[in-house]
Amino acid sequence: MVIPITALPHVNAMLNGASTFFLLLGFWFIRRKRIAQHRLSMLCALASSLLFLASYLVYHYQVGSKSFQGQGFIRPVYFAILLTHTILAMVNVPLVVITLVRAFRERFDQHARLARRWTLPVWLYVSVTGVLVYVMLYQL
User: Fold this and answer.
1) pLDDT in tens, 12-50
2) Residue 64 buriedness (CB in 10 A; 0-12 / 13-18 / 19+)
3) C-alpha to C-alpha distances, 57 to 106, 111, 112, 126, nearest whole angstrom
4) Which residues are CB-contacts of 20 (< 8 A; sequence separation ≥ 6)?
5) Which of 2, 19, 70, 81 might form a disulfide with 48, Cβ 3.0–4.6 angstroms?
6) Which long-range contacts (CB under 8 A, 24 or more apart) does 55-62 make?
7) Does pLDDT of 118 surpass 90?
8) Phi-psi region for residue 72, left (φ > 0), alpha (ψ -120 to 50) or beta?
9) CB neighbours (10 Å) of residue 58?
10) d(CA 1, CA 4)
11) How many whole angstroms separate alpha carbon 116 and alpha carbon 54?
């Protein structure tokens, strides 16, 4: 099955939504000390984010960029969300890598401190605003 290039923005939004779901599920599991389920949820969040990144790069390599058509009050709102989303998406990559490395090395106190304070909030913000950017760009 081949996904048409025009469907990739929708796929990307679904992958961002899936990432948000798995992040929240992983947080819910770790709060209940269900480590194996937490690990699986976070790896699913990572997989959906990596699939998103690959699909995003393929789409923009093939199609280029799409201009925002909204006017009035929504325009500065869109660019504020896009700017913070883009900056935090770049910040999120090393945060996720460091958090994962600490988990795999079983440095759980350092892993939890970084994940709780920075990685989870930034990753959630990027995932949720990714869906918002999609809605504003393709559905308004």
Assistant:
1) 999 999 999 999 999 999 999 999 999 999 999 999 999
2) exposed
3) 33, 29, 31, 16
4) 124, 127, 128, 131
5) 19
6) 55/8, 55/11, 55/12, 55/15, 56/8, 56/12, 58/5, 58/8, 59/5, 59/8, 59/9, 59/12, 62/5
7) yes
8) left
9) 14
10) 10
11) 27
Q: How many residues does the chain have?
A: 140
Q: What are the φ/ψ torsions at residue 73 (nearest 5 degrees)?
A: -60, -35
Residue matched to tokens 């760009």: 137
Tell me the whole-structure pTM to 2 decimals: 0.92
As given in the structure block, the two tokens for residue 115 are: 């994940």
Task: Name the packing angle between helices 35-63 and 8-31 (round to 10°).
Answer: 160
The whole-angstrom separation of Cα 15 and Cα 8 is 10
Structure tokens at 105: 């090395």
